[in-house]
Amino acid sequence: MSSAKRSDSESDLTARARIRDAAIECFGQHGFDVTVRAIAEQAGVSPGLVIHHFGSKDGLRRACDDHVLGLINDLKKETITSHDSQTLLHQLASMEEYAPYVAYLFRSVQTGGGFAVSFYERMVTDIERYLAAGEAEGTVRPSRDPAKRARYLAANAVGAMLLRVTLHPPGQKADFARLLREWSEEYALPALELYTEGLLTERTMLDAYLLYVSDPPEESG
C-alpha cells in the first residue's frame, strides 16, 4: 500500500472513530432523537461523511452499541479477573472517563424498543462471559445457573442506575460524571461487601428454595 493510500485509510479510521465518539456523547446527553447534523457538528465533519461511514443513523447507533458494550466488557473482565487491588483503585480514580458510556447505556435502556432489547440482551451475555472468565481465574464463585445470575446482575445494575437518575435528574446537560461519583460514594462499599463477604450467615433460605424448586407443593383446590 502506498503512503498516500495508507494515509487516506488512517484518516478514514480517525474520522469514523471521531464520529462514533461524538455520537456516543450526543446520544448520551440528548437521547436518540438527536439529528445526524448535530452529531456531525459535534464531530467537526459533514453529515454526508457520517452517512458515508455508517450508512444511516441506525448503522451509527449499532456501531456505538458495539463500542460501548466492548469497552464495558473489557473493563469488567479486567476487574473481575484481577488479583491486584491496584486494578480497582485505578478504575475508581479514573471513573469519570467512563461517564459518556454510562450515559449512553442509560439512554439505550431508557428509550426502549428493539435497540434497547438487543443492547440489554448483549449486556447479559457479556456479563455471563466475564463471570465465566472470573470462575476460570478463581476470582468468582461458580453458580448453579450462570445465565440467571448474569441476568440478575444486569437487572440490578441497570435498575439502580435508572432509579438514581429518575430520583435525582442530572439537569439539562446531564452530568453523568457527577452521578458516577455520587453512586460510588453511596453504594461502592455495600456492593463490595455483598459481593465479597455475602449477606446471610446461614443458608436456610437457599436450602428451602432449592427444596421448593425440586419438589414444589401442589396447588390446593
Automatic annotation (TrEMBL):
Q: Does ATP-binding count among this protein's keywords?
A: no
Kinase recorded as keyword: no
| DNA-binding region(s) from the entry | 35-54
- In this chain the HTH tetR-type domain maps to 13-72
Please provide the record's keywords in A-Z order: DNA-binding
**This protein's superkingdom?**
Bacteria
InterPro entries in the cross-refs = Homeodomain-like_sf, HTH-type_TetR-like_transc_reg, HTH_TetR, Tet_transcr_reg_TetR-rel_C_sf, TetR_C_25
GO MF annotation: an example: DNA-binding transcription factor activity
**Could you tell me which PANTHER family the record lists for this protein?**
HTH-TYPE TRANSCRIPTIONAL DUAL REGULATOR CECR, HTH-TYPE TRANSCRIPTIONAL REGULATOR RUTR
The name of this protein is AcrR family transcriptional regulator
Q: Which organism is it from?
A: Nocardiopsis sinuspersici
- Lineage in the entry? Bacteria, Bacillati, Actinomycetota, Actinomycetes, Streptosporangiales
